[in-house]
Each structure stands twice: as structure tokens, then as C-alpha cells.
Amino acid sequence: MADVTLAAEVGRNLGSRATRRLRREGKIPGVIYGHGTEPVAVAVPARELRVALNGEAGANQLLSLETGTTTYLALAREMQRHPIAQTVTHVDFQIVRRDEVIAADVPIVLVGEALEVHHGDGLVDQQMFTLAIKARPADIPTSLEVDISELTIGAQLRISDLTMPPGVTTEIDPETAIAIGQPPRVVTLEAEGEEGDEGAGAAVASAPAAEAPADEG
User: Fold this and answer.
1) pLDDT band at residue 1, thresholds of 50, 70 and 90?
2) Per DSSP, which regions of the chain are E strands?
């Protein structure tokens, strides 16, 4: 995975007023931390960060943050967003080393077509959408693919069915289901209606007959 270089301005002013000014200038405040380094307050270009994190690697994109005097290899680990606009308002950048094993969440993508399931009017039910893995930063895959072509109704594809790239491991139980071939859903409204009619008939049959009024005189 190639790095994406971002200019990171240091020495930004802290506080809500200064933060609003940065955002008006098209910058996002953030902090660089990790590996015993004192936290460094920075500001990065909003558009360039958005392009970097919307790429194939997503949030696992390796970033080279250049401050002018130091370059930090980092990942965008925590992003705060505006509650309505959902734009990024602050980023925590965690320093990583190329030779260390780190944790990451990687998307799981279903590929192929489950013909047996579809021909049986069934449904492919994806149970897991991301997998927690461990790898060196450059070995983190953009996604993990699982082929559902041989999936049948009632069968499962599990973590053990994944082909993990070299240098990538996971501690998730290998028997954990990723996708299940679900049977077709049967609508039983008609049967319930019949049961309801029988129940109503039984209720009428068991109801006591009304007494005839007594003759007067």
C-alpha cells in the first residue's frame, strides 16, 4: 500500500474560535500521537484528507504527514463528525512503524453468485461486514473477498473459508459465520386466516343459546 502525503501545519491555535477559523479555511484540526511522542496539534487540508480516505484503502490508508521538520507515518484512527452535515471536524492520527504489527478492521466483500440459493428462492444473508485483523501497515488489505458461488440453502461460509493474504492474521473464531444461505420465507397468512375462521366457528358453536322469553300471564 502506497503512502499518501499530506501537509500538516503545526503550531495551530487551540480553542473553538480558532477551530472554526481553520474549517472556514478548508482545513481540519487534528493531533498526532503515539510511540512515546508528545501529542502534536496539526491542521491538514480537508479536501486532500477526504480524497485520501475515500480511496480503495479507506480508513486504513497510510499517511505521511509532513510538518516541515518531521514526517510522521500514521493512520487516521478516530474522526469526529458534524452531527448533521457529517463532515469531519477533527482527526486523531496514530503514529505507526512499517515493521510493527497493528490492528485494523477490513471490509468483507461477497463475490460471485449463489445460483443454488437464488434458484431455490432463498436469500444470501451476510452476517459479517468487517473483520478485525492484524498485520504490518503495508500488508493491510483493502478488503477480504469470499466467494459465495458454491453456497447452498442451509449452508454457511465461515472465517475459515477466507483466504488470508500473507502476513495477515485474525483472532476471530474460525467457525464464525460470514454468510448463510437462508431458505425462502413462506407466507402463512392464509393458513392463519383459516385457523381464525375455525376458531370463530367453534366459539359460536360453544356459545349458550339465548333463552326464549317467558309468556306473560
Assistant:
1) low
2) 4-7, 9-10, 27-34, 37-45, 63-66, 71-81, 88-95, 102-111, 123-126, 130-135, 144-147, 156-158, 177-182
